[in-house]
Specification:
disordered N terminus; 147 residues; 3 helices; binds zinc ion; alpha+beta; 2 domains; single chain; 4-stranded antiparallel sheet
Amino acid sequence: MNYSHSILPQTDSLFKLLNRLESVRQTGPNKWVARCPAHPDRSPSLSIRLNGDRILVYCFAGCPANRIVEAVGMTVSDLFLDSPKKAKKKERATLKTLAAQILEKALVKELENELLEEIKLIERLLWRYNGWRVIMDDGKHADDLPG
Ligand SMILES: [Zn+2]
């Protein structure tokens, strides 16, 4: 099962959990069943449900929730999603980082443009210098070099 990554940080661990389980099947809005990773499970006996800001896992064979999440390399705290407030805070931090990266790129671009302008200027000067060299070769007017 490959669930696309959510842009909402608070549902990240839900997708992580679903991606790590086997025989995942959605049975309704915010409801899934899967094979329980904590016991040898032939038919999907694990129920996963998103309830507000927490993920509820329930094994019909009686496996405790911590054993289930640990079996897929997660912890019980992963079942508690970030509150909208905390999620927003995280999102803001991500956006800040993103903005800083964009700004840095823009600055680099601007510097590159400035550099390009300088190169163009140097090219113009070189072109003129070649013109001047003819005069310099003449041995006169050397003091008239642009600078
Ligand atoms: Zn189980």
